[in-house]
From TrEMBL:
Compartments in which it is found: Membrane
Record keywords: Disulfide bond, Glycoprotein, Immunoglobulin domain, Membrane, Signal, Transmembrane, Transmembrane helix
Originating species: Sylvia atricapilla
Region annotation (Disordered) ranges: 178-206
Protein name (Swiss-Prot/TrEMBL): SCN4B protein
Protein's membrane topology: Single-pass type I membrane protein
Biased composition regions of type Polar residues, renumbered to the chain: 181-191
Spans through the membrane: 140-161
GO molecular function: sodium channel regulator activity; transmembrane transporter binding
Name of the coding gene: Scn4b
Record GO biological process: cardiac muscle cell action potential involved in contraction; regulation of ventricular cardiac muscle cell membrane repolarization
Ig-like domain residues: 2-126
GO CC terms in record: voltage-gated sodium channel complex
Length: 206
């Protein structure tokens, strides 16, 4: 049946942390760990989790539907949820407060959507923690290095935020294109690149 065929194509849960999967943070600072998810058919009772180095759960939340904001199930006291799902984008980003050197490692954003036959997808971001400036005898050099380092840090943060925003905008546009292609009754092969793109992005079957 054509209806079933279309439904199968639209099962495309995707999770992303942006174009670059690395974030740099200064010791004792707060760092944003970005994550968004897309799905063509919507979601119901969706569960999302953040893991540190694959196994350690640091945040878990549940979203009843598009009209409600996520509710936390459990979270590490240092982790703060900063996303929103009632707005345009399904943003499930978190902020890690008071970053320490031991926090360096992999952070995985995992989503499970019961509405898509419990489809699951995840994306990983790598956090690097930068050491504070070591005091030296040459005070002038230290000040110059300190100022330049600060400016570079601000520039990296600005570029990261800009990239995330641009990525989310692009992602939203891409998602709409794929949903439109999938929902039309046409065979995807006629749509060339859009069809193959949708196929490539389909999550691997467990």
């Amino acid at each position: 049946l054509p209806g079933l065929h279309i439904f199968a194509i639209t099962l495309a849960l995707e999770v992303s942390v942006g174009k670059t999967n690395t974030v740099m943070a200064l010791n004792n600072s707060n760092v944003l760990l970005p994550c968004v998810f897309t799905t063509c058919i919507g979601f119901q009772d969706l569960v999302f989790s953040w893991y540190f180095n694959t196994t350690e759960l640091i945040y878990q939340g549940k979203i009843k539907n598009k009209a409600t904001e996520p509710t936390p199930i459990w979270h590490n006291p240092r982790v703060e949820f900063v996303g929103s799902t009632t707005k345009k984008d399904n943003n499930i980003s978190i902020v890690l407060n008071g970053v320490e050197f031991s926090d360096a490692g992999k952070y995985t954003c995992h989503v499970k959507n019961p509405k898509e036959r419990n489809a699951q997808h995840n994306a990983t971001i790598v956090l690097t923690v930068v050491h504070k400036m070591v005091k030296t005898d040459n005070t002038v050099t230290l000040i110059i290095v300190g100022v330049v380092g600060g400016l570079i840090g601000l520039l990296i943060l600005f570029m990261l935020i800009k990239r995330v925003v641009l990525f989310i905008i692009k992602k939203t546009q891409d998602g709409k294109k794929e949903c439109l292609v999938s929902s039309s009754g046409n065979d995807n092969t006629e749509n060339g690149l859009a069809g193959s793109k949708a196929e490539q992005k389909a999550p691997p079957k467990a």
